[in-house]
Specification:
This protein is α/β, with parallel strands linked by helices. Helices cover 38% and strands 14% of the residues.
């Protein structure tokens, strides 16, 4: 039986919209309302946040607050690695998706010789770099950093030396780069990306699975196909951004909502089936923003139900 440990990260310094720092509290409110024992059942460790820098002037216009993102990710990496070293299953709950670079760094530093498969359930690719970003928000760069890519071929900006230095540090968390190969990534639910990301996906033949494919073929079939595609991987990591959910059907309670996404049942079905595979060593959920929720606390309640089912499956694994 896998022992689950919750890693709580309320830092929202990588996001472009304020409010996701309240995501964990929103989940705890949802747990009380829905009579869930998720936060009582499993031990938690809390990552110190860097949210005080949100009141300070921006230093890096093409990688906003990247110095603070790096501090947070170093802490995340350490906690994830410690959890895995104790044969726990880290359940990472994070305010924004820049966190994922730290999670992957923690997995890779614990298992440096293992091949990691990444299942990125997200409306966005997060494959920008400071050279290509239209916004400067680092939560749109975490997957690019983890594959060690500048996407230099499609650069739109030049960087000052200090920004480039910080970007190199973000890519090289735990002094490892890349942490994952593009052959070992599956993007599920992608439907909002920019040209530099699209070119990178095509040029590197990164596997994509659309919402329509999941709906047409079924969550179990898609999950089985993904696991088969990642059959050469030793470990699997799932990063679940709640903006993969349909904002009209579920909620607008996330920083960058996108229409035509998954239902709760579709997302949960994919995640649950993937978690049956014992190679799946970590699950992450990110980008709940209760300040933007148009249905009170609906996004957190939806995510909580998904997590309750997911943790039940992990607990039952032998």
């Amino acid at each position: 039986m896998s022992k689950i440990q919750i890693i709580e990260n309320s830092s929202e310094v990588g996001a472009g919209t304020r409010g996701s720092s309240l995501s964990i509290e929103a989940l705890k409110v949802a747990a009380r309302n829905l009579k869930s024992d998720l936060f009582k059942k499993f031990s938690s460790v809390v990552i110190p946040n860097e949210n005080d820098v949100l009141d300070e002037p921006v230093k890096f216009s093409k990688a906003l607050r990247i110095d603070s993102v790096i501090k947070v990710c170093e802490n995340v990496s350490s906690k994830v690695s410690k959890s895995l070293s104790k044969h726990n299953f880290p359940l990472v709950i994070a305010a924004d998706h820049s966190n994922a670079a730290g999670t992957l760094a923690g997995i890779k530093s614990t298992y440096p010789d293992k091949r990691i498969g990444v299942i990125w359930i997200d409306a966005h690719a997060d494959l920008h770099s400071p050279f290509t970003t239209p916004s400067g928000n680092v939560h749109g760069m975490s997957l690019a950093a983890s594959v060690g890519s500048d996407n230099d071929k499609h650069r739109a900006h030049e960087l000052d030396h200090l920004t480039q230095q910080k970007w190199e540090k973000y890519k090289n968390l735990e002094n490892i780069s890349p942490k994952v190969n593009t052959d070992d990534i599956v993007l599920i639910g992608l439907r909002s990306s920019e040209d530099p990301e699209d070119y990178f996906i095509i040029e590197n033949n990164i596997k994509k699975i659309s919402v329509e494919e999941v709906r047409r073929t079924g969550s179990d079939v898609v999950a089985n196909n993904v696991l088969k595609y990642l059959s050469s991987c030793d470990l699997i990591y799932i990063s679940f951004d709640v903006d993969s959910l349909d904002c009209d059907l579920v909620s607008y309670g996330t920083g960058t909502p996108v229409c035509n996404g998954f239902t709760e049942q579709e997302a949960s079905g994919v995640i649950n089936h993937l978690l049956i595979d014992k190679r799946t060593c970590c699950l992450e959920v990110v980008e709940i923003n209760p300040c933007l929720d148009n249905k009170q606390n609906k996004m957190a309640e939806t995510a909580l139900r998904i997590l309750d089912q997911a943790t039940s499956i992990v607990e039952k694994r032998g």
